[in-house]
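Most newcomers find our protein records easier to grasp once they have seen one. Nothing more is needed to start thinking about how sequence determines fold. Here is such a record, shown just as it appears in the course material:
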Amino acid sequence: MNKEELRDLLEHLHDKYNLAEFIEPDPISIPHSFTSRDDREVAGFMAAAIAWGNRKAIVKSARRMMAYMDNSPADFVRNASASELTHLQSFVHRTFNGQDFTDFVLSMRHIYDHSGGIGLFFENRYDTTGDIAQVLSDFRREFFACPHNPHCEKHLSSIDKGAACKRLNMYLRWFVRRDNRGVDFGLWQRIPMSALYLPLDVHTGNMGRALGLLHRRQNDWKATAEITAALREFDAEDPVRYDYSLFGAGIDGFLKD
């Protein structure tokens, strides 16, 4: 298809899937369960951390996470006692275990203690660097600056090692994007939507290649930058809104014969 036909398809799929009905079966439903910015940021971060594989299983496990945190995630991060943290040891979601959960809580506490919150860290670092790629690198470094078990590091992708950083970019989409659709939160207004990168995984990668938006075969940071650059040609101010389009193309069976 030509560029105008591709634009029409992307717009059609965006309008079909960027709707409130998208929320309930998606991991973004977890932060939508809360009303305060801090609770949403913590709940969203934990949901994004385990967001690989089956969406239904992700949402189920993320809801269990919130129950472990007394359904007050920000307060739990700031104030959980040693005995309350010990209770997290029984949690398991695939390779994300209870020690990983504990280490992530303590790392978020470190971010709150030193930066005032996850969102403030991202916004302040973007103010300084003007570069999301650099912010992702800085965030991971700061997140693991406190004592932790090395096993948990596998659950926070490293852009410095060339990872696509799908879950971090998805988390950023949730909190930076703003429109009138009610799905993304738009809470971090000091970061422009134009600075975001597509959350690239095997599904969006395959769709991107099928649509001629991505040529690199490996799903890494270079591929993330390539496909995002292609999407900026259709909407320079909000390229990542087409995440819905690529998701929708998969749901609609675009690749099926």
Remarks:
- The longest strand covers residues 92-93.
- Residues 98-115 form the longest helix (18 residues).
- The radius of gyration is 18 Å.
